[in-house]
Amino acid sequence: MSSTNTLHVFVISPDTRSERRFDPHITIEQLKSKLELFTGIPASSQSISVLNSEDDPTIVGQLSDDSKALGFYSLKDWQVLKVDDLNPSASYTGQLTDVSQVEKFELSDAAYAERKDSVLAYKQQHKVGRFAPKEQIKEVSPPKDISLGSRCEVDSSEAGLSKRGAVRFVGETKFASGVWVGVEYDEPFGRNDGAVKGERYFTCRPNYGVFVKPEKVKTGDFPELELDLDEEI
């Protein structure tokens, strides 16, 4: 364990994966209450195993005594807490990610092109995107105040939530027109790992990457925020 105040671990369950920080002095009972909030598994139904890493499924420990402190089990930073549901029928664990029973709707390119209520039909009718007259297409250039490697903060629609990170990409992309800014977040607020639709623009951990329009990005002195352990879940 790297410090007496904070333990960094990965938490995985049938429906979730996240990086978390915990106070090693909390009890396993308190830990289960926190885990319930983002895994959806009731504390009473949780079975918590310790893995060395996500690539190594070998169980090296079991958090079996609710009265013991988390630090009692001598966990190390970046080990994995694997949370299993002992009663999945009651909480529907795993059913949110099981799409095997969902019937797929498929539409051929030719059939889609004939529809009059599609996005393609709208763009053709209003001459936007690739259907716009060439004289209306304006050249775009990267913003001068956003440079690679600079610290930044991205506008958030959630009040009080600061999404900070570093600029990893600035330029045009294949997934949408115009200039986009690729950001590697400090926390897993993102949607990708720097790649979109098979095209890689930068590299980071899964769910740490995001692409936003330049107007949503502010660069400057934005250090990584320290988490308040009292509010950590």
Automatic annotation (TrEMBL):
Q: What is its main location?
A: cytoplasm
Tell me which CDD domains the record gives: Ubl_TBCB
Q: Which UniProt keywords apply?
A: Chaperone, Cytoplasm
The molecular function terms of the Gene Ontology recorded here are: alpha-tubulin binding; microtubule plus-end binding
Protein's cellular compartments = Cytoplasm
Q: Which residues form the CAP-Gly domain?
A: 171-213
For this protein, the record's Pfam families field holds:
CAP_GLY (PF01302), Ubiquitin_2 (PF14560)
Respond yes or no to whether keyword Coiled coil is given for this record: no
Q: Name one GO cellular component term.
A: cell cortex
Q: Which InterPro entries match?
A: CAP-Gly_dom_sf (IPR036859), CAP-Gly_domain (IPR000938), TBCB_Ubl (IPR045172), Ubiquitin-like_dom (IPR000626), Ubiquitin-like_domsf (IPR029071)
One Gene Ontology term of the biological-process aspect is:
post-chaperonin tubulin folding pathway
Family according to the record: Belongs to the TBCB family.
**The protein, known as:** Tubulin-folding cofactor B
Q: Please name the source species.
A: Lentinula aciculospora
Q: What is the lineage of its organism?
A: Eukaryota, Fungi, Dikarya, Basidiomycota, Agaricomycotina
